[in-house]
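Hi all, long-time lurker, first post. I run a small reading group and we've been trying to get comfortable going from sequence to structure in the token notation. Rather than ask abstract questions, I figured I'd post a concrete chain and ask someone more experienced to write out its structure so we can walk through it together at our next meeting. Sequence below, copied exactly:
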Amino acid sequence: MRFAGMDLDGYIEKSRFKETIYVARPTMPSKEEYQGYLSSIWETLWLTNEAYWHQKFTEELKKFLEVPELVLFCNGTIALLIALKILNIEEGEVITTPFTFSATPHVVCWNGLKPVFCDIQRDSYNLDPNCVEKAITPKTRAIFPVHVYGIPCDVEAFERLSKKYSIPVVYDAAHTFGCKYRGKPLCGYGDISVLSFHATKLFTTAEGGALVCHTAEQARTAYYMKNFGIADEETVVGVGINGKMTELSSAFGLALLPKVPEEINRRQNLYKLYCEQLKDCHGIQTVSVPKDCEWNYAYFPIEVDREVYGLSRDELFQRLRRCNVIVRKYFYPLCNRIPYYAERKDIPKLPTPVADEVAQRILCLPMYGNLPYEYVIKICELIKTFPEWTNT
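-- Answer (accepted) --
Happy to help. Here is the structure in token form:
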């Protein structure tokens, strides 16, 4: 309800948060817990190159995620780069989604391949298998879906396409830490999956990532490739890159890993609170918990229907930011609208009407375990109140 005698500027000045509320904040181990690991690193002076904590972290992650093989990397982007590289694809096209972070198509290009952007499903925001099948040609070398917001792709459909056309499926699973689909870790689907441990993620090593695969041979190849192609002191088995995770990041991850279940539980409670607060806000659509999924609640996206809500997504974005709430348009612009990809004449230009619509409506609200409940209530109150000033 509009405050008597107050315009929008006055309302924002009255209502803005004194501190900045970011869309994501990292969960941290305590200084004391982390210091326990650092002491041994200072004693050994071993900072990298598969040292003790790196090896320990690898084994603990494999247990936690319930995956057979896992290789740690300095970040998720290098892990994605290597994921495509170990498939021995030297030329051709990779079908992927435009509704993703730009690193996804970038690694396709870094591998000398061409990204082909297909449309997404309206309910899941994920790559549409029906559109993918129509886009498959003799030049197609891989399918590269993304589990957006940790929502499972149609993994059964992609498995059928993989078998039907003998095309590997590599999942960008950056958002999926702790997610399970039908009782199986979501990062365990496909030929290869890649996780990100960036500071904005539910689980972080500050910077970091991991490649999840099914065979020891794939894991060994990934290890060689992240280690300059070096097998031992005197043996270089191929061309590699420096993609190793340090002991400092490995120790951080080990100290943080036991806190993941509680972090997910806190986010689940925040999700419920957001949904309750926004349930009667016409024109604001929240995302339902995916079916058959143990979700991680890593993000809280909403869709803004301008005709019903009274403001566009961009107008809501600007007003929340003026109130010191740093929301994000994940993912806008679409990757196929980035000038580099839009202007390349050698990349097929397929219609993506669903992705185009979603990219104009989507907005991710703050979501992290330590976000106070009263902040969520206030953010929702702002969202519900802003349409009072639609003509200001």
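A couple of things your group might point at:
The radius of gyration is 22 Å.
The CA atoms of residues 69 and 115 lie 27 Å apart.
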